[in-house]
Design brief:
Blueprint lengths: L8 H17 L5 E5 L5 E6 L8 H11 L10 H13 L2
Antiparallel strand pairs: 1-2
Helix pairs in contact: 2-3
Amino acid sequence: MRTTRTVGLAGARRTIGAGIAEATRTSSPGGIVVADAGGNLLAHVRMDGAQLGGVEHCVDKARAVVPCRPAGGGSREQDTAVAEAAATAL
């Protein structure tokens, strides 16, 4: 049986908080998106000082990594690798 891990609003907020912390640490503000396993938008923020690329560009990046995810989700290390790939995609 195939299972898929999901994240709720609280998890999306934690993920965005971690993204903001990393962007602040590296002095690279940007847009941060949390999407579900189908690439559908769950949450989005655009940090102060980020380029005006828009929500759609960030969502497109999130959708681009959906086919890269293993069935049933992945480990924390796999999730980090996918997130790093998304950051350089498109």
